[in-house]
Amino acid sequence: MSRTLLTYAEIRHHQLRQVSFEAVSAAAHIVQDQDQIVTCLFYGSAEDPAEVERYAKELFAHGTKRLYTIAHTDLETYHAEAYFQAFHHVVTTVQPHVILLGHTALGRDLGPRLASAFQAGQLSDVTDIQQQGEHIICTRPLYAGKAVEKRTIQGSPTRPAIITIRPNNIPLQPVQDTTPSRDVVALPYTPPTLRSIVREVVRKTSGKLDLSEAKIIVSGGRGVKSAEGFQPLEELASVLQGAVGASRGACDAGYCDYGLQIGQTGKVVTPEIYIACGISGAIQHLAGMSSSRVIIAINKDPEAPIFKIADYGIVGDLFEVVPLLTAAFRDLLQKQQA
Amino acid sequence: MDIWVLLKQTFDTEEKITLVNGNIDDTGVKYIVNPYDEYAVEEAIRIVERQGGKVTVLSIGPEKTGEALRTALAMGADEAVLITDDRIPQDEWAIVHVLTAYLTGHKPDLILGGNFSVDHGAGQVAIRLAHQLDIPHVGSITKLDITADGKAVVQRDAEGDIEIIETAIPALFTAQQGLNEPRYPTLPGIMKAKKKPFRQLTLDDIPSFSWDDFAARTSRLELSLPPARQAGILLKGDMHEQALDLVRRLHEDAKVI
To answer: Which end of chain A lies in a sparser environment, N or C, as judged by fewer CB atoms within 10 Å?
Structure first.
């Protein structure tokens, strides 16, 4: 029996998100025999055809065999009902056994509605995926990573298994050099009667990486002392092309937006490098960042719990250390470029 | 306004997790109202304080969950319903099947819940319920206004961007941090809560509940703890040397830059 594995390709700031390629790789992880990996992509009708062409190329290179597209003004930005309508149509057309989306703002919102519509199961925020016989086995964190569970799910063409994957966790399959068969299928869209309208999208993040996808995170805690105190962290992050995060302490103190909060409340992140500046390391914060590959702690207090889990620790004043680090990284990166 | 709030009781976020015989040990663990659900309770109470109505908190969970519901009543919710039944599996489809059956026949104007629970963290139940009840939803909101013509205008946090969305009512919303600052229960509030209606039910008490198609769609195979992280190297020297040393180690030893 051959199955269709459907992934969703998400566009953000005129790029396909990394997690969309990870979704294709996750499908490749469980692919068997004659299974086919296909992807769907939605965009506004004003989208530049050259950009869509580029998206298609990138997806084919990562392992997608066929791309389904839906273009409509309703789909220009995320709209829960419009995107549901489009996705529902793809699912009934393609009849996939499995649907893979990123566990992003979009995937979190769309996945459960789709699952409900198809009376299907869903596993959310998955960090690993395997096929064992008839079953798909997914690993996912509990308590923001303080524990880990493996759950099993089965899908069928009428009741697909829905899986949202956590960014930065599924390793990418090597990019293929094959001449892609340009198999792009445009599907129609029937506008539903919308019960809600998106009046406005206030872009506060243009160009900035989302924390969940950042490879390097520079994070500040109470030790940052004020909103202005984040400035040296911003500079370090910018040199490293990373993102700035924060502890609950810093957010509660009003130094920064709750959108930056990392922890069991807030975001869970798994970057390559996590630099904790002036963060003591409360359990609920550690839950949100302990799976980072390399953890660096900078804190005045040598007894701070963060040092117990950090790979490298510097006992010192972050306002002295962080600018020195920024300079040292800048030197290294310039040498590498030269 | 008839407002329903979906509430879950969770471990305090400062709790460590330990396993006994492959299960999570809750000996001596402090329980709280799931922090995101607390924002939902607070928001519901504020709406009723402004324009009248009733707030009912609804939960599925073991008997102990009653404590969390009492907390919500002490904050100012009017009624509580707890569905306790060992036959309900830990699976979002099944849980929503029960909630849908229970809410059939009720006509909520608003349903509020948390963005996700800090234990299982899937964030599925509320949005699935909106679909089953055929009402619109907006997830992860940081502001909620009810307009004079009976619509809701909300701000949704989409990974840092803010979407301003207007939606018809009835609707379901899930709360994100920043929506409000939840109040603490006062002593008079706690006293009053003891007299407020509190219903505890099993599946047998829900007339619309059907065993057809109730089966869990997912099941747990294994539960484990992540490998513990070890303390690494504390760097030495003056700050300038330490900074250079760190960058060198990241480049040469860890090879992450």
So the answer is: C
